[in-house]
Fold:
Amino acid sequence: MVQLRLLTEYQKELAVSYCKVVAISTDPWRENAALRIGLGATFPFLSDADRTAQQQMGLLEVTSRRRVDLPRDYILYPDLTIYRVYNGYYYVGRMTVDDLRRDFRAISAQIRKDWDPTALDEQEMVSAYKEFAGYDPFGPHPSDPPGRPVE
Amino acid sequence: MAKLSDFVPGAKFPDLALPDHTGAVVRLSELTAGRDPLAVMFFRGWY
Structure:
């Protein structure tokens, strides 16, 4: 539970990082929901109650009578390619908030074209912005009401 | 069936579809939307 509490504290940073976290357990979804509310977590919790992921990945914790998933953390690129794996059987092996910051920073530096604005010219920056945000920074903003003239 | 040792850096993670905290089935690819990195944390559960 310590790791989940620390991730819950980290979620304020997560909200402005363009990165995501998801927690998965074999508990039924209603138990996950209660735990999530109790923690005050805003990231999603998924339920592997029917052991789909466990069977698909070989995640069975063999010393558990409850057939839970092995504690394990995976850092993924947006296309779900694995960047890093943390074996969390011992708590000390689990992903920390510092690990997460470091890994998300490294991936973002690889995938965000405008990660370093000094490496691009003005045209390239505007183009990268359009691609990421989905609109022209000098055109109408998506939140503008229809018909309002651009000032 | 895949082994745990198959899921290493550079390999593809399965696009799991599981019920979220509201009971709605969610795919991991919906969470990343193809543009954001994702940390997947498996924990032992509440007990």
Observations:
- Helices of chain B lie at 28-32.
- Strands of chain B lie at 17-19, 25-27, 38-42.
- Chain B touches chain A through 42 residues (CB under 8 Å).
- Chain B has a mean pLDDT of 93.
